[in-house]
């Protein structure tokens, strides 16, 4: 662990605390705002809004604390790049799975979602992604369809006459 | 002897063909995820929760527990062979284990880890069996106020042992508690924070939250900088220990077991703390401290025994009080709840077969682990050659199928995206996700007990301070926070946890 004290690191660190605090504050405000529309009740018989509102206030106070109190020196943060490509592709694959899983069926949706997910790593070529997708489709068919009998059809209704339940 | 008849019941339950089979699957999967860096037991148990819905409660819990302690075994293999802890608690094992492997003693290092773990696991399970009933009896007398204070204590202790900023950890707990309030309010039936989504009436899906925060967020972390891992040792020969080795590891294993059993009960990161504590104790006690860091077998034996003992005893607060010591235990609580059982002191009296069955299965599981880890070591070495770029798509797909199959509901899969991104952002900002998960799981219990305590006390909030047991529990919680904030402890804590990442 190196105790770096140059201003750059310190600025970065305090910026992280500020952002973290701001996120907590926004969440707290949202929860508090919504809580005011629920019945508060009284201490003896708390309504559904009582505890969420109290918690939201606590979170708000802690959020301000996070912004003000200098946090621990954190060594290996900062310079690491945000994997935008990974985040977008993995999220897209999950949404794809949720939205079209039923229609496409287990094997096709696993194939497509794996293909998209695998490309999230820069180390996977398109060909490698295809290979992983084929292998994982077969594996999931064996484990989840044959082994555990998931509700998803093997090949979904969208394939018309080729549908396999 | 009461204990013997309980254990007989336990073995009767655990030794059915079905339960042994799923126990085996559990420890096998546990070893696998322990061996593979990049997937932890938390994400794995979250992923496999949906699969266990169709099982009977005892089978489901036997398997899920197996994953947890199996991962502690597997983690040491990776630590020894590639100097990368598969599991945070094996970080210490990597120090001397990897040096042993480089000196051509990978075999004895692995054997020491496996045998030490087996011994520690078996002894700690016995401690669990002996300590659980009296503790549960105490807890049975708890009223709503005591329960509330106990839950608060559990949450507070978990941060004092966590990594990083205390105030951020507190904020994460409260955020978890808030997320736990989403859904229909039990008492009044009001839908809270559902934003018009029918799907949110039952609350945020626990599995989606755990998989997102611990599985997907972790994948995003690993995609930041992609590295190749080197397997330094491709073949492991000569697994047997010499007489001299046995003599050297006996003391460390015994001490490690003792330390681990005690520290495992602490909420937070008992098993991580236990392995570090054991390592420094062995180093201090050793006549040749200069050997530590250069392949001292004691440096493998002690910590490995300690973390496995702790893995076993961390079930004590869960099984007796219904309080999870760390995220994995929070997930196991989730498994109890999904099976329609409220975890806590009642489990032992209401469902003795379940309770003692889980305990007995731990011995069977530990035995299976020795078999899995020693003769089959070659297989695990092969597993290590699977690159991460192949592994993470499988994690994402298993997560999708798992979450989808709970209710056949696309909403649960979308929720993974939300929590994956939220988790990633928060982790990058230095906020650990573990306290959030604990808060989320304990939130509804906390609210229920708070409201009940208020009704009983006729709206008098001082009840938590006037009832002695409740007051002492709260005082203990406050003390934990104060201690965690003390500068000297903070420095120590940073030293202890610096290796964890």
TrEMBL record, chain A:
Keywords: Membrane, Transmembrane, Transmembrane helix. Residues 19-153 form the DUF1468 domain. InterPro entries: DUF1468 (IPR009936). The chain crosses the membrane at residues 18-38, 50-69, 89-119, 126-144. It holds the Pfam family TctB. This is Tripartite tricarboxylate transporter TctB family protein.
UniProtKB/TrEMBL annotation, chain B:
Residues 21-438 form the DUF112 domain. Keywords: Membrane, Transmembrane, Transmembrane helix. The keyword Transcription does not apply. It comes from the Bacteria. It holds the Pfam family TctA. InterPro entries: DUF112_TM (IPR002823). The chain crosses the membrane at residues 20-39, 45-69, 109-132, 138-159, 166-183, 203-220, 315-341, 353-374, 386-407, 413-443, 464-486. This is Tripartite tricarboxylate transporter permease.
